[in-house]
Amino acid sequence: QVPLVESGGGLVQPGGSLRLSCAASGTISSVNIMGWYRQAPEKERELVATVTSGGSTNYADSVKGRFTISRDNAKNIVYLQMNSLKPEDTAVYYCRIGLIGAVYWGQGTLVTVSS
Description:
Elements: E1 4-7, E2 10-12, E3 18-24, E4 33-39, E5 46-52, E6 57-59, E7 67-72, E8 77-82, E9 91-99, E10 102-105, E11 109-113
Parallel strand pairs: 2-11
Antiparallel strand pairs: 1-3, 3-8, 4-5, 4-9, 5-6, 7-8, 9-10, 9-11
């Protein structure tokens, strides 16, 4: 098991910023992919951004230019810096780590973008 603990969600006005953090604990292979997904009410969970242990990143088109994913390999922490937030970014954001042969999810953190 790889427990994932997320933090940083909350209420923000449109145009504002938030930074999400996710810390993974336990024994983790040095080869892995960490990422963020989100699920809005009555919608399916969707990819937001991922980053490999080598630093390669991938973003959903809807967040390109506004969100930045990064990681601290020494601490097994992944961050999601979210700028220029829009009401349609409102969702529960989930951290995910993909290892060889296993995938683990965090419990989710709610991000609400509203005036």
